[in-house]
UniProtKB/TrEMBL annotation:
Residues 12-226 form the Glucosamine/galactosamine-6-phosphate isomerase domain. Pfam families: Glucosamine_iso (PF01182). Its EC number is 3.5.99.6. The active site is at residues 68, 137, 139, 144. Keywords: Carbohydrate metabolism, Hydrolase. Belongs to the glucosamine/galactosamine-6-phosphate isomerase family. NagB subfamily. PROSITE patterns: GLC_GALNAC_ISOMERASE. The gene is nagB. One of its GO terms (cellular component) is cytoplasm. Catalyzes the reversible isomerization-deamination of glucosamine 6-phosphate (GlcN6P) to form fructose 6-phosphate (Fru6P) and ammonium ion. InterPro entries: Glc/Gal-6P_isomerase, Glucosamine6P_isomerase, Glucosamine6P_isomerase_CS, NagB/RpiA_transferase-like. It catalyses: alpha-D-glucosamine 6-phosphate + H2O = beta-D-fructose 6-phosphate + NH4(+). This is Glucosamine-6-phosphate deaminase. It is an enzyme of class 3 (hydrolase).
Amino acid sequence: MTDVLVVKTPDEAGEWVASRFTATIATRPDAVFGLATGSTPLPIYRALARQAAEQKLDLSRVRGFALDEYVGLPEGHEQSYRTVITNEVVKTVGLNPELVHVPNGAIDGIRTAGERYEEAIVAAGGIDWQILGVGSNGHIGFNEPGSSLASLTRVVKLAEQTRQDNARFFDSIDDVPTHSITQGVGTILRARNLVLLAFGEHKAAAVASAIEGPVTASVPASAIQLHPHVTVLADEAAASQL
Ligand code: GLP
């Protein structure tokens, strides 16, 4: 059963999610969070920083695993998700960078990078809370339409729609990588709790298919229906086709 919360603003969603996270950290200071990039989760990170400061929570043992990373960007590239996670999550929230993992998108070693990432998640005891955004084509992480619902962390080819959506972050679409390494749909489903956030009209169709459509690899986000503890937080525009 998927809980759906319709929020007035992204900040309201961020506060709600952050309050769940701080409650978890208060009882388990080394809790494990699945981190997402994109504009959607930013309110969570801001709210988490504020709530943790107010509650004087110790965040030094909190652990994180990013969902995905581009393949082949040079180290330190400003659009690599390692850089984005460092700037938007580690620094904003005040986490220990050594405890925050991002899949390794370097070409060297890419064949085994997925397996190593899976092992690291298992060794950490699994993910307590996984944050998800949703692509306009229904992708989660970089699991594009057609991804197996049992898939684990692996290299995938990006859909043309995704490259176009993300071209705004690069000088031109030719600079957008063609491949990424992403936690699989199966990896995501192993997390103990999922929160999927979506804001804006352009997400309405993806949200409706994810929650009310058939569970299908054509809409990877629909896999959340298979999970026992999932909350979708959407603003009125993103919830308008429900
Ligand atoms: C990227 C990420 C996804 C994210 C999506 C939506 O493709 N790999 O994890 O959900 O963008 O981004 P935004 O939140 O900016 O709409």
